[in-house]
Amino acid sequence: MVEDQKQEVGSSATIASDLPKGVALLADLATNLNNATATFDVLAEKIKNGELNSAKGLSLLELKNQSFLTYMANLVYLTLRKLKDRLVEARVVLERIRPLEDKLKYQIDKHVKTAADGVVSADDTLRLTGNLDNIVSSSDDDEEKEVTSKVKKTDDEEQKIYKIPKITQAHYDGEAKKNEAKEKARRRTLNSSMLRDALLEHTEDPEVVYNNDVLKQRAIKKRRELEVFEEENMIRKVVSRRDKAAMRQMTTLGTMGSEILGFNTMDALQHDYDPSAPAAKRQKTGKSSKSKGKGKFKGKKGFKKQKHRF
Amino acid sequence: FCVDPKHEIMGKESETTATVRTRKFLTNRLLNRKQMVVDVLHPDRATVPKSEIKEKLAKMYKTTGDVVFCFGFRTAFGGGKSTGFALIYDTLDYAKKIEPKYRLVRQGLLEVKKTARKQRKERKNRMKKARGTAKAKLAAATKKE
């Protein structure tokens, strides 16, 4: 509606501007027509009288005459139609309809398809609208009562038990850690120098002596890192006293000794080893059993008894 | 055990030459200088003094000695080799602008005047006695005595 009004306003404006021109043109048209008719009458008379016989004349000019006549006739016809049958109006209406049709194309197609098929298609999305009846109003009394009673019960119970307030989720990796510790301890004992030496007796491989002192390697690596940093940035880094001492210490041969002298127990290799539990006390052997006599304290029982004493 | 008379070691043997080698050479266009890591090989000798290294580097890079600044020399364990850094500026002006003050002082291009420590402390204690505008007056009076 607004569009139409706008169109009217626009057209009235153009009309206002074109009106004087149109009137002038019409006047012109009238005069021209009069002149034309006058000459035409004269010509028609001449033709009737047979003065103008073009049978012996130039055929090209005859053709020109004929085509002119047909052209004029058709032009007159067209003008008549335009004035009579609202051709322009129809054209404008069609042009307006076109964009609307474009916008509604999808729906039109859907409906046309439904009409053509005769049955509503299975996956017709136009049917997927909400069911307004199913929306429950919030002022439904019966249901509320039930819900509130339930809530009250649990509240009382909860107030008695103290629950830790949950601020953030805490990561619990107890199980994994335990296994990790166990694995680590196991690996440590297996790779200890004591066990390695013990195993050397039983292997037939040739003995290989590596020069990889782990502690020394670490120190060397650290030193190299420091060197690279200093040369890269042209600055001498201040090394703390402790680090300096550590660096100095690593270069000495005394560091090897700690590895050799370290005693490891075989507990880590047992199946039920628990790294977090306190280490089992060492059981005394040899001396005590001897002093007590022969048969009495044999086997496991004997050892257990010794434990009580000490 | 007898000492060979031909090889008498007399006091300071500073006549054995030291070899100066540079590594990681980089031309720093932003600071108008050349920077490098300097390796000095000096067997049978104590650590070479910076002035000597400076002269050697100046000769190597065909500049005067006053635009060469070397620092950070550390001798490796056991002696014989030391490593440090050196910067060679394009001009003395740039050097004066860019180098930190302490290095300029070492080179002798800058003089830092400093009142004696005792004097400074005494002045501070005197200032403690005054308050407000009186303090400012006292400060001006006792400045640079």
From TrEMBL, chain A:
It comes from the Eukaryota. Signal peptide: none annotated. Residues 271-310 are annotated as: Disordered. One of its GO terms (biological process) is maturation of SSU-rRNA from tricistronic rRNA transcript (SSU-rRNA, 5.8S rRNA, LSU-rRNA). Residues 281-310 have a biased composition (Basic residues). Belongs to the SAS10 family. This is Neuroguidin. It comes from Cherax quadricarinatus.
UniProtKB/TrEMBL annotation, chain B:
This is 40S ribosomal protein S24. GO terms for biological process: translation. Residues 115-145 are annotated as: Disordered. Pfam families: Ribosomal_S24e. Keywords: Ribonucleoprotein, Ribosomal protein. Residues 115-134 have a biased composition (Basic residues). GO terms for molecular function: structural constituent of ribosome. SUPFAM superfamilies: Ribosomal proteins S24e, L23 and L15e (SSF54189). HAMAP family: Ribosomal_eS24. It comes from the Eukaryota. The lineage of its organism: Eukaryota, Metazoa, Ecdysozoa, Arthropoda, Crustacea. Residues 135-145 have a biased composition (Low complexity). One of its GO terms (cellular component) is ribonucleoprotein complex. Transmembrane segments: none annotated. It comes from Cherax quadricarinatus (Australian red claw crayfish). Belongs to the eukaryotic ribosomal protein eS24 family.
